[in-house]
Fold these 4 entries.
Entry 1:
Amino acid sequence: MITIAVPPEPTDEPRGTDFPDHDTYLLAWYTWRAIRRDGEFNHEELAAYYDTKEARVRQLFNQPTA
């Protein structure tokens, strides 16, 4: 049997190594998924959005995480 390795097709999907932390990556991925689907956030995507925004504000003002 002969197997030919074919590189995967390029994608615009966010990759974890492109972001400084996991929360930022998740926000980018959920946003990417929403845009590809219908352009609107579902409940899971909204939760990731608000969690990431809250963490960033806490970081900016040196507040402990909840």
Entry 2:
Amino acid sequence: SLSAAADGGDLRAAYTRTGYRFLEGVVPDHPVQGRRRAQGTFALRSDAGQH
């Protein structure tokens, strides 16, 4: 893995890991329920309700 390579002294891996370390705080470490795009959008204007 990238972390193992970085820990093993691979400078390129260490540099890359540093640039992406912010993902540890953004990406959940537990399974998430996926959604299809159609499930998260309104198909018709009437589905959105009154504005």
Entry 3:
Amino acid sequence: MSAETKQLTSEDFKLAEWVVIKQAQTERINEEEKEKWNLYYDDQKLWRSQSRLENSELDDDSKHPIYLPRHNAVRGS
């Protein structure tokens, strides 16, 4: 939050999004899931899936979606 204006910034929203995703990913991910979804840790310490879209012209977030475990509040299940 900007101290001068007391308004949320885009950086605040990015940090909040990261915290929510990281919290959802605290569930233990087993080897079967890692293999099934072809998971890897990205440079922000988030689990992502390598997909068949690797060679597409999509942006990196679309090519490598963030993995969310099946049962958590972020997914709504």
Entry 4:
Amino acid sequence: MAIKTLNEKFHHGLGDIYDAEHLFLEAQQEMLPQAQNPQLQKLIEQHIKQTEQQIATIEQAFKALGAEPKRVKCLGANGIVTENRKTLKEVSSNPALVDLAIAGGSSKVEHYEVSCYRALVQIAEQTGQAKVAKLLQKNLAQEEQTASKVEASMPKLLQQAIKSEQGQSAPAATKAATQGSRATADAQSRTSTKSAGGAKKTFAKGAGGSQASSEASDRMIGDGDSGAEQGTNE
């Protein structure tokens, strides 16, 4: 639909954020059971209630304009929600990364909403829609406050993710060291066994040679005695 007037643009923008709030509400309801950090869970629970109130506030703004609340498909909000869902699926095996992804996604949502509400408030104020401006300003203040809370939670969640990775790498390093020690011990054991076998063979060979020399000496002595006896008889 072509937008030809400022009034039409304002109504379109209001319908856009109305749709966005519905999409973000659904996304928050999906994220809540996935969150592990208690503070993050509490923050999501609080903002779910706020979002429900904000939807009601937008409906009041529509009525103040003499119009029925109507959702206009918000491609921006849809893109953010789709991206967040994809990210959460990708990090689902690591709880610490899930919390970090939820906070990061929520931060994107809040900044998107803040920019939308600021534009709508400015238009409402400059076109004499004081009541509508006041209603939307209320939503804007809530979004700015939530954005600050989400950003404040990020460093702690990041540290949790770092510690989680360090905790996972330590057992892996220990396991690798243990396997290396076992391999070295096995190699040493095989070398010792091989050396012992070689010594046995050398000893056996030496013993065999000594026995052969002894037998040869006996034969020579025997031959000498026989010769002497023959000479005497003659």
